[in-house]
Design goal:
seven-stranded parallel sheet; 9 helices; binds nicotinamide-adenine-dinucleotide; alpha/beta; 280 residues; globular; Rossmann fold
Length: 280
């Protein structure tokens, strides 16, 4: 019998990281975290399908072309809405038809809408955030898991983008008192629990499910909260022990880790990547 602790028996870290011959589906693929992560997954060998809303089609087309040119893997795109059940099924089917398999699903699309505080938030904004940030996570995760089961894959990885706002309530940045985010925090907290539930439901088939909880990362998201990116990063530094916002380079290592065999014993975990924000 082999000795599992013998150094010559250990697998190469580079082999474990490789996604050669595998396919990844990435939602929010026209945004900062989605597009960077798709590029990172392609760099370690995956064929990638980028997904975003129809108004982002030109951006998706450009990113898919850049990824294919740069990494030599297949890269394509689909448009739709993560909250549309049939649309999600069609997009997952198209991914398998075009790219040949489905091994990694990065359910990452999400929005922050304003106003997002209990006193002022119109119910339609609350509902829209639940639809995209939570129902969307559920539909994308479930559809991908069922497709992986149907394909009889030996393994699969589902990754959900939650947020540090799923663990804490962010301090109000608008200068107004008593206006802290409600819907965003509620959907992100629920996403952490949803990922754990998926992990338990599909562990028997070696389909792993984990969430990531980023802190303040430089991407497209904060503009949509109505924040002024030219000033906000300065004021946000004080709360971050590492004294700066995170970059897209710093997200892709985490996604590569969770997507690949590097994390083959990790399921039901939530990994916080926030420069220490939630520690103090
Ligand atoms: N940037 C951060 O600091 C940060 C921190 C924590 C969590 N997050 C989360 O990371 C994820 C990615 O955000 P980002 O920072 O890249 O922002 P982003 O705005 O650059 O990207 C989000 C993308 O999601 C897409 N999208 C919106 N509604 C959609 C829908 N119904 N169907 C499909 N796609 C849709 C948008 O068009 C956009 O391209 C989000 O879930 C966000 O909540 C971001």
């Amino acid at each position: 019998m082999k000795d599992p602790t013998a150094i010559p028996e250990l697998r190469s870290i580079y082999d474990m990281l490789s996604l050669k011959g595998k396919t990844a589906f990435v939602t929010g693929g026209a945004g900062g975290i989605g597009s960077s992560s798709a590029a990172g997954l392609a760099e370690i060998g995956a064929n990638v399908m980028l997904m975003d809303i129809p108004s982002q089609e030109e951006t998706l087309k450009k990113y898919a072309r850049q990824i294919a040119d740069r990494y030599g893997t297949k890269a394509s795109y689909v448009v739709g809405d993560v909250a549309d059940e049939k649309g999600v099924a069609d997009m997952i089917n198209k991914t398998v038809a075009e790219l040949g398999s489905l091994d990694v699903c990065f359910s990452n699309a999400g929005v922050g809408l304003a106003p997002d505080n209990p006193s002022q938030m119109p119910l339609d904004i609350w509902q829209k955030m639940l639809d995209i940030n939570l129902t969307g996570m559920f539909l994308v995760g479930r559809t991908a898991a069922l497709k992986m089961l149907e394909l009889k894959n030996k393994s699969g990885s589902l990754i959900f983008t939650a947020s540090m706002s799923g663990h804490i309530i962010n301090k109000n940045q608008s200068g107004k008192d008593h206006h802290h985010m409600a819907a965003y925090a509620a959907t992100k907290s629920a996403t952490v629990a949803l990922a754990k539930s998926f992990a338990m439901n599909y562990a028997y088939a070696n389909i792993r499910a984990n969430s990531i909880s980023p802190g303040l990362m430089h991407s497209g998201l904060h503009k949509k909260f109505g924040m002024d990116l030219s000033t906000f990063p300065e004021t946000g530094y004080d709360a971050i022990p590492l004294d700066r916002w995170g970059t897209m380079d710093e997200i892709i290592g985490l996604i590569a880790y969770l997507a690949s065999d590097m994390s083959s014993y990790v399921t039901g975990a939530d990994i916080i990547i926030d420069g220490g924000y939630t520690v103090w």
